[in-house]
Amino acid sequence: MTAVSDGGAPALRGDEIEISGVIEWTMEMLDAADLRPAPLPGVEMTFTLARVPSPEVNRAMYAAVGARVCWTDRFGWSHADWQAWVDRTELSTWIAMAEGTIAGFFEIEAQPGGDTEIHLVGLTHAFVGRGYGGYLVEQCTRRAWQRGTLWARDAGPATRVWLRTSSLDHPNAMANYHRRGFTVAEQNVVDKPVPDPRLAPWPLPHDPRTLAGDRAGDAAAPGGAAARRPKEELIT
Ligand SMILES: CC(C)(COP(=O)(O)OP(=O)(O)OC[C@H]1O[C@@H](n2cnc3c(N)ncnc32)[C@H](O)[C@@H]1OP(=O)(O)O)[C@@H](O)C(=O)NCCC(=O)NCCS
Q: Where in the chain are the domains?
């Protein structure tokens, strides 16, 4: 998932290094019956479809989950790129929660002809290696097969679920996909330039220092956000 661009050329910065011999795999599952369940985690893990397309949320999850395993292909995306990415009925984002904490997420896309791509799947760092990863990939794959009913309701049924991963992803990832029933469809070895993921810029559409007036306007709007806030705070 780290080594292959999701679309367009990544904007590389001066602090990139080239990593040689990166293995990229395309993995696929051709029948929902091939999905092998993982053991349940020790505590409940829930999965919620993000119904409001939110570039900030996807960008935050991308960085939170992916920075340690060099997910960098999207670091060159502008806010408008992220907005266009999430603002599609064929893309769905799911947030995983466990122990009262955001434990991971996945992005799946209903593509033409029955292909469903798992673009991203992963745990936040505190949940890695604690028995959640197999279940996360199982639930992600289950939902990928449920396109056309559970999400992307206008899309037809899935005929293939696929993803791209690489030797830059977490060392547990490949074994996890194999255990869930994925097989390798394609393998390539490439030299990959990777920018430093530690200090990625955070794209916003505007300079927030210039928005003080707009925020005051929001607060004053009748029935607007400010008018609802006390009630919402009571509910939460
Ligand atoms: C890939 C990823 C989801 C795998 O999760 P993980 O926690 O590292 O590893 P796994 O869940 O596969 O754990 C390995 C095995 O040990 C078991 N295990 C590990 N820790 C355990 C624990 N504390 N208790 C019980 N079982 C445990 C798991 O059940 C699993 O076996 P199973 O698949 O038969 O269930 C996770 O490493 C991750 O999100 N990494 C960052 C992002 C990433 O690389 N994503 C993949 C992109 S392609």
A: 17-205, 210-236
Ligand 1 mean position to 130 CA, how many Å? 7
Residues with CB under 6 Å of ligand 1 are 1, 38-39, 65, 69, 121-123, 128-134, 136-137, 165, 169-170, 172-173, 176, 179
Nearest CA to ligand 1 atom 5: 133
Residue with the nearest Cα to atom 17 of ligand 1?
A: 131
d(CA 104, CA 68): 14
pTM given for the model? 0.86
Amino acid type, 129: G
**Residue 204 reports pLDDT greater than 80:** yes
- Kindly report the CATH class assigned to 17-205: alpha beta
Three-point CA angle 49, 77, 167, nearest 5°: 75
Banded pLDDT at 203 (limits 50, 70, 90): confident
Instruction: Measure the CA–CA gap between 91 and 224, rounded to whole angstroms.
Output: 29
State yes or no: pLDDT of 75 exceeds 50: yes
Of all helices (H) and strands (E), which one includes residue 225?
helix 225-235
Residue type at 119?
Answer: H
